[in-house]
Design a protein that fits this description.
The complex is a heterodimer of chains A (114) and B (112). Helix content of chain A is 0%, strand content 51%. With 114 residues, chain A is mainly β. In chain A, strands 2, 4, 5, 6, 9, 10 and 11 form a 7-stranded mixed β-sheet that branches. A 4-stranded antiparallel β-sheet of chain A has the order 1-3-8-7, with no helix packed on it. Chain A is globular. The N and C termini of chain A lie far apart (37 Å). Chain B starts with a strand and ends with a strand. In chain B, strands 2, 5, 6, 10, 11 and 12 form a 6-stranded mixed β-sheet that branches. With 112 residues, chain B is mainly β. The radius of gyration of chain B is 13 Å and the shape is globular. Chain B is built from no helices and 12 strands. In chain B, strand 5 and strand 6 form a beta hairpin. Classes of the chains: A mainly beta (114), B mainly beta (112). The interface between A and B is medium-sized, with 18 and 18 residues.
Chain lengths: 114, 112
C-alpha cells in the first residue's frame, strides 16, 4: 500500500486568488492522480500526473486553471487558479504504487472560496 | 460507455442488521472493481478489490463483495453493521492501464 498526506487539510480563499495543494507519498510511485469532489458528489478525475511527463487532463479540466507539478517520484502539487465559489470542493490526490493495481488516496483538501 | 451505478443514494439500517449495497457497472474490458469508504471529513479508504479469481472477495472491517459477471454487479455486504460503519461508500471500476470511474456513492446511516 501507500500512505499519502496532503497539505493544507483545508483552506478558505478569496475569489480571484490561487491555492496550491501539496501531495506527498511515502514511497516512490510513477502514477499519481488528482480528483475533485464537489459537495455531495462523487469523485471526478482532474488529471493524471506521471513523473517525467506532462500531466494528462480529463475533459473539462485545463492546465491554465489546474496546473500540476510532478518534480519527483514522491511528490506532486495541484494549483487551483483564479478561484471562484464554484471551485469550492474537496481535492484529493491518489497514487498507484508501481506493480500494484490499486489507487490509494490522501485525506483530501477542503477548499472554500468566498 | 464506461459507468458505475449505485442505485441507492441513502440507506438506513439498524445496528446489528445485515447490509447490502448495490453496484452495477458497464465496462468494455475485464474490469477491476473496488469499494472505497469515506467517513465524514476523511479521505477514501479501500475496503476491498476484485481483479480475478474467486468471485467472493473479503475486505477489511468485515466487508465482503461478490462479483457477478452475468449481472454486471459487484454488491457489497456485511452480516452485522456497527455504528462506526456510518459513512459514504463508493463503488469504482477501472483497469490497470486506465482511470478509475467512481459511482455517485451510497450514504449509509445506522440506527441505534
Amino acid at each position: 500500500s501507500a500512505v499519502i498526506s496532503q497539505k493544507p487539510s483545508r483552506d478558505i480563499c478569496q475569489r480571484g486568488t490561487s491555492l496550491t495543494i501539496q501531495c506527498q507519498v511515502d514511497s516512490q510511485v510513477t502514477m499519481m492522480f488528482w480528483y475533485r469532489q464537489q459537495p455531495g458528489q462523487s469523485l471526478t478525475l482532474i488529471a493524471t500526473a506521471n513523473q517525467g511527463s506532462e500531466a494528462t487532463y480529463e475533459s473539462g479540466f485545463v492546465i491554465d486553471k489546474f496546473p500540476i507539478s510532478r518534480p519527483n517520484l514522491t511528490f506532486s502539487t495541484l494549483t487551483v487558479s483564479n478561484l471562484s465559489p464554484e471551485d469550492s470542493s474537496i481535492y484529493l490526490c491518489s497514487a498507484r504504487p508501481d506493480y500494484q493495481d490499486t489507487q490509494y488516496f490522501g485525506p483530501g483538501t477542503r477548499l472554500l472560496v468566498l | 460507455a464506461q459507468s458505475v451505478t449505485q442505485p441507492d443514494i441513502h440507506i438506513t439500517v439498524s445496528e446489528g442488521a445485515s447490509l447490502e449495497l448495490r453496484c452495477n457497472y458497464s465496462y468494455g474490458a475485464t474490469p477491476y472493481l473496488f469499494w472505497y469508504v469515506q467517513s465524514p471529513g476523511q479521505g477514501l479508504q479501500l475496503l476491498l478489490k476484485y481483479f480475478s479469481g474467486d468471485t467472493l472477495v473479503q475486505g477489511i472491517k468485515g466487508f465482503e463483495a461478490e462479483f457477478k459477471r452475468s449481472q454486471s454487479s459487484f454488491n457489497l455486504r456485511k452480516p452485522s453493521v456497527h455504528w462506526s460503519d456510518a459513512a459514504e461508500y463508493f463503488c469504482a471500476v477501472g483497469n490497470r492501464d486506465d482511470k478509475i470511474i467512481f459511482g455517485k456513492g451510497t450514504r449509509l446511516h445506522i440506527l441505534p
